[in-house]
Specification:
Elements: E1 20-21, E2 25-26, E3 32-33, E4 36-37, E5 54-58, H1 59-64, H2 70-75, E6 109-113, E7 116-117, E8 137-143, H3 148-151, E9 158-164, E10 170-180, E11 187-197, E12 201-212, E13 215-216, E14 245-248, E15 256-257, E16 268-269, H4 272-275, E17 284-286, E18 288-301, E19 306-323, E20 327-329, H5 330-333, E21 346-347, E22 353-354, E23 369-374, E24 381-400, E25 404-420, E26 424-425, H6 427-433, H7 460-466, E27 467-468, E28 472-493, E29 496-515, E30 535-536, E31 540-554, E32 557-568, E33 574-587, E34 590-601, H8 605-609, E35 613-617, E36 655-659, E37 668-682, E38 685-701, H9 704-713, E39 722-724, H10 725-728, E40 732-736, E41 740-760, E42 763-780, E43 788-789, E44 793-795, E45 799-801, E46 804-814, E47 817-826, E48 829-832, E49 835-837, E50 840-851, E51 856-863, E52 891-900
Parallel strand pairs: 6-9, 36-40
Antiparallel strand pairs: 1-4, 2-3, 5-8, 6-7, 8-9, 10-11, 10-52, 11-12, 12-18, 13-17, 14-23, 15-16, 18-19, 19-24, 20-23, 21-22, 24-25, 25-28, 26-27, 28-29, 29-30, 29-31, 31-32, 32-33, 33-34, 34-37, 35-36, 37-38, 38-41, 39-40, 41-42, 42-43, 42-46, 44-45, 46-47, 47-50, 48-49, 50-51, 51-52
Amino acid sequence: MKKPEIFKLSSLSLAILASMTTPTIAAEDSQKIEKIMVTGSRIARAEVESTSPITVVSKEDLTNLGISDVSSALRRLPALTGRTENNQSSAGSNNIQTATLRGIEATNTLVLLNGRRLVGSDEDGLVDLSSIPFEAIQQIEVLKDGASAIYGSDAIAGVVNIITSRGYEGFKITGHYGRSSRGDADERKVGFVTGISTDKASILIAASTSNNNGWEEKDRYMTKDADQSYLGGGNGRSGTAPNPKLTGFGLGDGTWTVPDAANPSQAIAWDYTKEGYNYREAQSGANDNKTTSVYAFVDYQLSDNVTFFSELSFHDGFVQGNQAPPGTDTGWYSTNVDTPNAFKRYPDADGNHFGVGAQQKYNPFGIAGNVAKRFSEYGSRIYKSNNTIQRYTFGLQGMVAEDYDWELVYSSQSAKLVQEGGPQPSLIQIERALSNECETAADPDCVALNVFGPEGSVTPQMLDFINTTAPSRTNKNDLSFIQASIAGPVMQLPAGEMMFSAGAEYREDQLSLTVDQAQRTATFDVSWGGSVTPVVSPVREITEYYMELAIPVFEDLNLEAAVRYSDYSDIDQTTTNPKFGIIYQPIESLKLRGSYSTGFRAPTMAEMYQGRTSSINTNIYDPCNPNNDSNYVNTSIAGCANLNPAFSKNEIQSNDIIGGGNLALKPEESDNMTLGLVLAPLDDLSITLDYFEIEQSNVVFSSSRYVVDQFVSGNPEFANAVIRSNNGTGYIQTIYSSSNNIASRNLSGFDLNINYLLENNLGTWRFNLDATYMNEFQVQDTSDTAFRDVVGMYDSAFGSIPEYKVNTQVDWSIDNYRITWDATYNSKIEAASDDIMDSTLFHNLQAGYYVDNLDVDIHFGVHNLFDKNPPFLKANGTSTDDNLYSFRGRFYYMGFSKTFN
């Protein structure tokens, strides 16, 4: 077998490149001509060219980079930035992996498999990029332009099209193993692909299974402590600690604690700097995850002009992560909107409400009070999620009247995402265990809770009594569609044939979200968790029609035009979105191209139909105390003047965000423009430069920061939108922040790719540079606020938006040997004048060898070659932006593939 040709295609960017092969057709001379369809067009053509910029990543390129999954591949692209979720995005039950082209939310990036839609996994309908086995993939194409005229909703920022292999013959097995230099973060993966072909039929089956370990925050220098003063940050330890924090109990003003369980009545002042809890000792830095995926493709030629095909895929993904032990705060919950009647049994003459009775079994003071205590005896909460996906696609494709390709497709898909929390205490049971009646004749089955002592005061019997079933929620998405299309020539023009494509699509989409009784908003009973309202959305019916034209005006000038009409059954609005493109070649070595289109994004089912929710927000913000300092209020702001500095610090390090769906939402709208050039001054040198511009309006947005600003400024419309602790004089406890069509964005920038291939006596060399310059990312949170530019900034809504992102790569090969070096650059990010992440440059290296007589390819590599830490960020509490960086450190890996013929 011939060894793979590693460097004949460019690595991370080609402006114009073949993508999906359609069935070949007979020409007048009876020879077979292969037609190619590029992402962003429904017209297959003998010559490949696109009016929009397309990035192509082949599987061979990814193997050279030590990449074996789609998410990691896309994160290498400079066009992806912002809040791209991945399996290294901190602790908890995050399960799916997403893509955010241009830094806009992932709901604005459409993900396709072989040009067709995929079912989403979560309530926002986001596609899990890990659900396609890497072994089935031929290449990944990223259209960096709006494409609503071609594909419909969601393609505002662009399209990710995963192309699978066709016509593969043989059997190949692959393996991958890696481990960090700290001795953790193990990656294990095995897979295979096999295929056979006959004159009339072919079949391809690919499968893979992976088992990857995460790491603990305590095992990394930058994440070992929530008190970040050793890094130049502040103390973010939690005020809910194993040592109880007491108020009331006749102890006087302030907060108190009991350090000695043997002397519970000997209370001392509670000191946050000493007692604050380092929750990062108990949390995952990255989650463990397992995946099993199977993909199959079959086609059979029914006649000379008709072929049947079927595409099946199945995925099971499991994620597990640790979070800190739960706790409770009776004073906080007594004023929480989710628990309006909790811990109010014991009022005093001043109108205060207390949750611990004066005669409670372990109360040494004989006076009622409130307590905040973390039940560290639980150990870490273990969060788990399981994502199962099934896709069934069947179709017919063929040719009519010798020149016209047609296709009829039906697909049925479903995804179920089950998320389970770790052991959580019940508020109802805690209130019973802290009452006067517990373990008396009035409540003999109760087990009293001892909150008057340090860690160890709470016994296993006490935990068993207050424990509730681990909270769980199940999200189920169903998607089915029928597509019909036809494409071919319209007429012969002097410069060539005018081509067209036309089609129709009917699609049904539905969301159901169920949660256990304890986690429901109406019956909320989980200490240390958020509430969710179950929802079963109506079936959304979408009817769409589209047409596309490719017009050769002159030999060196081609035009494209497309339009798509969309009608959504549950939105009182139809949309019609056009797209126009031009490509002009004034000389052989230069092509100029441009496009203009409008786009839309329909509100997700959750955005419309979700009931009231509450979620814990750890990215706290308060202009009255911007650094969350003790005993500080910015009295220069009028809206802060009446606050009490003694209660200004949010020691819980979180607050509640109250949100929910909005049936009145309308589609988001956009205008997209690209202008570019493709230059090939030498046979082995190509340069592409593209300008992009996106204007997005009517954006569905929820900004808790905006709500807080309006509340503090005294806007009467927001007078009840923020609740502060201590009867309105303390820190921010709850924010009402619902979604509306209120925001706008204006983005622009440039993409650059330079690719050069050199062959000499020393071997074959390839040099590739891929870069994105973000010129502006203007954000308007509501129509009555000014735009703000988040380029080069860290923003709580969008994450980090670097001004420059650059990926450069050098490949070398000779005979059966090869070496790949690549480096990734991100420019600096500013969250505040005193909170700046410096620019970074990370290096990776890989060497490989192909063993001819065994048909085995082996490779060894190192990611983060120099073991650099990510830059420090104070703003989000995780020590960096872990959507952009990772704390994994230096990572060694090896892999192999073995081919059988």
